[in-house]
Amino acid sequence: MPKHGKVKWGVLGAASIAVRKVIPGMQRGEWSEVVAIASRDSAKGEAAARKLGIAKVYGSYEELLADAEIEAVYVPLPNHLHVPWSIRAAEAGKHVLCEKPLSLSVAEAKSLLAVRDRAAVKIGEAFMVKTHPQWLRTRELVRSGGIGELKAIMGVFSYFNRDVANVRNVVEWGGGGIMDIGCYPIVTSRFIFGDEPVRVSGLIERDPEFKTDRLASAILDFPSGQATFACSTQMVPYQRMQFLGTKGRIEIEIPFNAPPDRPTRIFIDDGKDVFGSGVVAETFPVCDQYTIQGDAFSRAVRGDGEVPMPVEESIKNMAVIEALFRAGTSGKWEEVAS
């Protein structure tokens, strides 16, 4: 296989996020080239390939994995298929960028470690936030003492979706708000604190029909502070993250669905007063976080650095998610498995 130039990618499935956001983003990359897409629904696959100008269309995932030209695979399948197809891709010698959540459990995520090491490939979870300039800058400001000592992180992430046919509403397939969007405040709180929470408390309300978690609130107890968030699949669409220190505060305006066609902003508050007279906005030029994510992974494939979210990190994130589900059932603080 060539070890220079753009990494040749294949995509397993014509999922909405792949067709609308991730593939177009990767196609603009300096290091990524999408050469094939596979779909069990041939009409859907053909339509996606035509729309996006992808040369090869396969009617099965197996056919795509057998294509020797493809070096790396992006997996945007429903949650319960992430690990099985990531394993098959790795065993076929392909590097794997898999949508979040990487797995449905810690045990399932751990099963990827052995296959990754045996196959000598890269496997990463697609948390595009970890490479977006607004998040890197926020972390830099916090670490340099710009807001004093970070004490509290507060977040919310919600949308409204009661479509019975949507995979996010199928509990057996890893549906529900915590797996779909609650994972973002968790991963970013860990990223900014630079540490792991020790224990978790939470409240979970389930949809009476779907049995999925439709509203969850969590408290993550970190060694140096606390993170709280609410996430919901049946609430007004909204997202915001706040970072409060002993001296100042940072707010990320659009933390997770950062737009690819307009600038993004963070607000830095020196704490002068509650009216915001000490708030300064920092604006980041237009960029596509999926382009950045794809290129960061492709560069790692070419030997330049590690993938942004390796399996070891995914296991730690899933340990927090598991503790939150336990807390939602027990009504008690639950320790995060180390």
Structure characterization notes:
The protein is an alpha/beta fold. The protein is 33% helix and 28% strand. The protein contains nine helices and 15 strands. The chain has a nine-stranded mixed beta sheet. It has a six-stranded parallel beta sheet with strand order 3-2-1-4-5-6, sandwiched between helices. Strand 1 (7-12), helix 1 and strand 2 form a beta-alpha-beta unit. It is globular, with a radius of gyration of 20 Å.
What layout of secondary structure does this protein have?
Layout: E1 7-12, H1 16-27, E2 32-38, H2 42-52, E3 56-58, H3 61-65, E4 72-75, H4 82-91, E5 95-98, H5 106-119, E6 123-125, H6 133-143, E7 150-160, H7 177-193, E8 199-206, E9 213-222, E10 225-232, E11 234-245, E12 249-252, E13 264-269, E14 279-284, H8 289-301, H9 311-330, E15 334-335
Parallel strand pairs: 1-2, 1-4, 2-3, 4-5, 5-6, 7-10
Antiparallel strand pairs: 7-11, 8-9, 8-15, 9-10, 11-12, 12-13, 13-14
Helix pairs in contact: 1-8, 4-5, 5-9, 6-7, 7-9
Largest sheet: 9 strands, mixed
Strand percentage lies at 25-35%
- Radius of gyration equals 20 Å
Terminal-residue CA separation: 38 Å
Shape by Cα distribution: globular
Total number of beta strands? 15
Q: Would you tell me the structural class of the helices and strands?
A: alpha/beta
Would you tell me the overall average pLDDT? 97
Order of helices and strands: EHEHEHEHEHEHEHEEEEEEEHHE
In short:
This protein has 338 residues and is of the alpha/beta class. It is 33% helix and 28% strand.
